[in-house]
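Platelet glycoprotein 4
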Amino acid sequence: MGCCNRRCGLLAGAVFGAALAILGGILIPVGDQIIQSTVEKEAVIVPGTTAYENWISSAAFVYRQMWLFDVQNALDVVELGATPIVKERGPYTYKVRYLAKSNITAHNDAVSFLLPNGAIFEPDMSVGSEDDLVTTLNLAVAGAYSLVPKNLHFFLDHIIKSTKSSLFQRRSVREILWGYQDPILKDILGVFYPYNGTFDGYYTVNTGQDDISRVAMIERWQGESKLSFWNDTYCDTLNGTDASSFPPFVDKNKPIYFFSSDICRSVSSTFRETQDLWGIEVYRYVLPPSTFASPSINPDNKCFCTEKLVSRNCSMAGVLDVGPCRGGAPVYISLPHFLHGSDYLRQDVLGLNPSEENHFTYLDIEPITGFTLSFAKRLQVNMMYGPSKVISVLKHVKEYTVFPIVWLNEVRYIFQNRFIRYTCSGDYLGHGGKLVERKVVFLKRANPPLPSPPHPPPRGLHHNPCLPDP
């Protein structure tokens, strides 16, 4: 099939969002007469293709960096009604998305699967240990404030006092992220609990076998062809892929769409610029500011506003209330440090410094194959609490406050020291006997050691088999 082996037909890359998995090889074909047919053959998600081999399991890892917000004046907030002041602590880094897809089942032109969740702490990539202590919001108090009916708040106040709890708590990084025995709920509670040993899905995606323009498009999630969180046809639409890849031959003049189970909705991403990723041309797509904009700026977001009080009659920008898909818990998702958010979000909690450079989300997509090679998914998890005349620890709170707990940067890069680069070139005998020059950039992981380049050269390549670059 041309240079090196059958893998020279595709550029295999990384995954994003709820299906983050790294592809094993990176191949870029150049030569108009061979690109389309090769990609269309090898990009379908069916056994025996390069796409399937790399799609089914990870060959490298995704890392999730976490920064927790450490409250500096917890006592003054509770006793004097002071504005909370936070200080960012991190990163605490975990290896994630290293497990292969499971329960893979084919259905005509679709395939279903589960995405296993797993996280392994990486101390060498972190500022400290998981035993580091952080003062953060009491998740049980904030959650119960919204979930317990107001006529039972007197009972909630009694439980808070009897367990010697408060609005804030001091716990280890491990406990805050992955779970601890909560004295109020008498159950395990954590920002991401449960995680290890759980699954995201089922996902059902199109294989592209009948229509390559539909490859990787999500057809069902958890067995349903649409969401059920937002009570609106538009907001409940499953639109796009899981962001690990997109249909080939990407048109940068059009937005791309993907679904993220983290935020319980589909979003669009727009082209910003062309990047050079170690000699590979990629299209950088970013989440536009309109993603979490208020409905007055982006009317499409009207159906994502499900309550009027905290959102100030749906005028709040920069946050998404995901309570409808979190059992009603007062959980809000935003960009880190409330980037693109309403000013009062950063006035209600001091110490936040949003930065477009450090806090925006992007995907780097190879346009011929549609594979996502590099990405940075940056999100912040917040919870809400508010004033109360009954709950003692909230009596001095003046406003409904969307409080930041942790922000994450889930990344995958091509690190040069982890790959060996090969360049394959030669004359390919095309249609009508015309010689077509064909060049391929070929990256493979250096660990485990690579096998020697194929020898002799495959049929059709007349000189210079794959050789390591100097």
